[in-house]
Amino acid sequence: MPQSVADHLAPRTRVVEAGGILTNVLTAGSGRPIVLLHGSGPGVSAAANWSEVIPALAEDFQVIAPDIAGFGASLGPVGTTYGIKLWVRQLVELLDALEVPSATLLGNSFGGGLSLAATLKHPERVDGLILLGTPVGTFEMTEGLRSGWHYEPDESEMRRILQIFAHDPALVTEDMVRTRYEASARPGAQNAYRRLIPEPGPEGTPVKGVPEESLQTITQPTLILHGREDPVIPVELAWRAAHHIPNADLKVFSKCGHWVQLERSSEFLCEVREFLGRL
User: Fold this and answer.
1) Which of 33, 59, 37, 58 is nearest to 46 (CA)?
2) What predicted TM-score, i.e. pTM, was given to this entire model?
3) What is the pLDDT at residue 3?
């Protein structure tokens, strides 16, 4: 591959003010815009969730991958109240700043929930939805979510939590552990996650995603991808979403945990390209 093409596909970092937050954004490629919205959890960021697939997606699309407010390098000032209203406003103002009238939203876990919330609030800004491991309705808190809430910066604990997420623990490299541990050790790095997820109780704790009844009003074409062995967001929630969203297709991956884009990257890219080619 010529160096000029490789440079075009490699993600570049820029900082954009959106929602009152200095937002760290990875951009690459050109063409139909697709916004990659990462999940939650200790040390998460756009780079942690998406760096492995951004160059491949950038071959065909304009890729925009922000650190959502409270995560990665997009930490707000002390006292910032994180919540869905801020996250939706940050996303819309980011699109405005980048002069993107509308885009396909591709969200992993919390990023999928944010994609749904943004679509319900600003449907004119969303061409299509791709949802990975996305919470909908009310469900019982899983061990993956519980571990993330109680996490305090510790490298061995970070390794244990990340190995919960993947069906094959070998996917979790020492570089991944170190990078996410260092990010999690920044002051205030856990605040947004603890606003997003309720404090776990001694027994069962219900977690609320986007209400199922509201999904019926979403008219955008939707692709739902989910790992059958997802230990963080149960695969049953993918069936719920597919049942309620009128124009939704569902693909379930066997021997796959919470990170479809990392655990089944080749098939993930094929599914995304085929879906976007139909829009």
Assistant:
1) 37
2) 0.95
3) 46
